[in-house]
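Hey,
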Amino acid sequence: MMRNLISILLSITFFAPTLLFGQEVAVTERGDSVVLYSNGTWDYYENYLTGIDKVEEIRKNPEVFSVPKSSGKKINGLNQAYELWYNDKNWKRIPAGELNPDADIALKYLHGDLYAMIIYEEVEISMENLVDIALDNAIGVAPDIKAVDKEYRKVNDNTVIWMRMDGTTQGMSMSYYSYYYSNEMGTCQFHVFSGRNLIDRYIEDVEDLLNGFQVGD
């Protein structure tokens, strides 16, 4: 299954926040975020967002999530924008490019076909818009993909959006459990994924890994 998942993930570039409906987001020397269109024109990112439908209301989970005690290994993210604590008895690091060329870090589960990656970009994007953009772009690769559930969570003293997406890509039914976070240091998308028939089997380890996500100081 590893080879199939790698080929699928290499084709799924819709998760990268710099790719919005086929457009690219860039930061100018003055610090402005702009959208570059394929016809050579551009516009300010804030104007681009006005063309996106209003996002639906997202419920809040009252539970507080934190790094599990079993997660004793740390990875520092790019630009010190975040860090990830994980249990190295359950996960091992792999070259990020094996899963997605836009990934900053990647891990493989040691006890089954389960994978994880964090995609980081320097551009700050509203989290509410970010999850809608990720889902809309995912439809271009997996037309039947849908958001099964989503909510705000308090994770290590920061508010993130959790979302589960299910869809079929290249004949494989996939599920993604993801955290989305953005601030002035940039945007993070943290995805843990596997076959739809497998991911709930490992749900405790999926949640433990997600909750190892911590925003850098």
